[in-house]
Design goal:
Distance between the termini: 39 Å
Strand content: under 5%
CATH superfamily of the largest domain: MFS general substrate transporter like domains
Helix content: over 70%
Order of helices and strands: HHHHHHHHHHHHHHHHHHHHHH
Number of domains: 2
CATH class of the largest domain: Mainly Alpha
Oligomer: single chain
CATH topology of the largest domain: Growth Hormone, Chain: A
Length: about 500
């Protein structure tokens, strides 16, 4: 080993040693919270739109888009205010409140079936998650500095994805073996573990205290947010990052149902089984076809394996340059996943997207952390969630209305059956989505695989990729302009 490589190794080890106990506790709690969240969220689109004869709810994609988009958007708006409350009442109490809400919300979400009750209980879950989010980020911010913040948030983001990988992996097997309700029980149990951690191991960190009431602090927060947004470096970046989150959301909102509708996962299972029977069984939850959530889970798995390496590489890059490069890679990856019905290309696209995500998201978090004023960490980290909020609102339309019109297999098949003058019963409590597919296949005198291919060739449901990748191209262009007109001039001024 030459001297330069030895110095780099020592530098990495020293950075790892610089992280404190609160940093690792916050990262561990993030892991479990993400386990519970993604254990549900990765399969939520399938649960909401799946056939009722399999225990799913049979909602339309428009209803799915509204539940997932609107509620998750609210989740990411609330940290602007819950961060302020947490700064006032303390991080420990905030975490206890969040975990109690999440634990009860996850359980009862699995007990209701109507659109309105699912929406309301998921909203209750979202409020609990919104209390948790800025606190976890603020603890990491307080535990890092300029020398290690990029790597620190890279580790934190890796822990997000460890949880984000474990959760769907458990859910995939559990729902295949025991049905849908166990997925919600799993989420509640995992959050209970976090409740024990915060009660017995978490020590309240030093906070900057003031005599302001909560209402006064809220007003101050709005003023501070406005002051922060007036900083062009931050405000323009927040607008641009809407594009990233709109594109990223397709991984969980749209891609699972796209895979369910159009990818022959039974053939993919057989292909994987030729290389590794164990891996094929793991990805299918013990079934005979690969579960969509396990393909989505490749994103989290890749991040678990590669995040530290990518973050260390990105340390040497300018923040905006790293985000531009990451967004180009992510756009290529997400485009591949929707362009073809071949499962192997779906896997390739998800891996490529994950690399771009690793370059972009932690760098964005680190940038905001660096400009956070002391004592306002939770509040300023809350601005991170503004583009996530808007991105979810836009995703409501793409994953709901647009998918329903362009890419939903059931809707396109209903159109085809109507154009051929073949009468079919309506979907109802007594006639499920799966039964519709089976009857249509019989009337068309095709196997279901042949029927799916016919609909694909006729209606080209993958056309939705033009919209998704178009958002990526627009965002990349905006980032180039932002770097040229905002960031580089400020860097030149600071260098003088």
């Amino acid at each position: 080993m030459n001297k330069e490589n030895e110095n780099e190794k020592q530098g990495f080890i020293q950075l790892m040693k610089s992280f404190t106990k609160p940093f690792w506790i916050a990262s561990t709690m993030e892991l479990f919270e993400r386990w519970a969240w993604y254990g549900l969220f990765a399969v939520l689109a399938l649960y909401l739109t799946g056939s009722t004869d399999e225990g799913a709810l049979g909602f339309t994609h428009i209803e799915k888009g509204q539940i997932m988009g609107f509620v998750t958007a609210i989740l990411y708006l609330l940290p602007l205010f819950t961060g302020v409350i947490s700064d006032k009442i303390g991080y420990k109490l905030s975490l206890i409140i969040a975990y109690v809400m999440l634990m009860t919300g996850y359980y009862f979400m699995g007990e209701v079936t109507s659109y309105s009750t699912v929406f309301l209980i998921f909203l209750y879950v979202a409020v609990g998650a919104a209390i948790f989010k800025p606190v976890a980020s603020a603890i990491v911010t307080k535990s890092t500095d300029k020398s290690n913040s990029t790597l620190g948030f890279g580790i934190f983001y890796m822990m997000v994805n460890v949880g984000g990988f474990i959760g769907p992996a458990f859910s995939s097997t559990l729902r295949t073996q025991y049905g849908w309700k166990i997925v919600f029980i799993q989420a509640a149990v995992v959050i209970f573990i976090n409740l024990l951690i915060v009660i017995f191991f978490f020590k309240e960190p030093d906070r900057v205290k003031s005599d302001e009431t909560i209402s006064q602090a809220m007003l101050s927060a709005l003023k501070n947010i406005w002051e922060a947004i007036k900083d062009s470096r931050l405000s323009v970046l927040l607008v641009i990052m809407v594009g990233f989150w709109t594109m990223f959301n397709q991984l969980f909102y749209t891609l699972p149902t796209f895979i369910e509708d159009w990818i022959d996962t039974a053939a993919l299972h057989d292909s994987i089984a030729q290389l590794s029977p164990w891996l094929a069984s793991f990805m299918s939850g013990g079934g005979k076809s690969v579960n969509p959530e396990m393909l989505i889970n490749i994103d989290a798995g890749a991040i678990v394996l590669l995040q530290l390496l990518v973050s260390y590489f990105v340390l040497k890059m300018r923040h905006v340059s790293a985000m531009i490069s990451g967004f180009i890679v992510a756009s290529i990856g997400i485009g591949i996943t929707f362009y073809t019905g071949n499962g192997l290309f779906t896997i390739l696209g998800i891996v490529i997207f994950a690399v771009g995500e690793m370059m972009t998201n932690p760098t964005f978090s680190s940038f905001i952390a660096l400009i956070s004023p002391k004592g306002k960490e939770a509040l300023y980290m809350g601005t991170y969630f503004v583009p996530v909020f808007v991105g979810n609102l836009l995703t409501t339309f793409i994953s709901g209305n647009l998918y329903q019109a362009w890419s939903d297999k059931l809707s396109l098949l209903q159109t085809e059956m109507g154009s051929r003058g073949l009468a079919m019963p309506k979907i109802s409590e007594n006639f499920s989505k799966n039964e519709y597919f089976a009857l249509a296949s019989e009337k068309l005198e095709m196997t279901q695989t042949q029927m799916t291919q016919m609909i694909w060739d006729t209606y080209q449901p993958n056309s939705i990729w033009y919209v998704i990748v178009g958002i990526g191209v627009l965002t990349i262009s905006a980032l180039f302009i932002y770097d040229y007109m905002v960031i580089k001039p400020k860097e030149k001024q600071q260098a003088l």
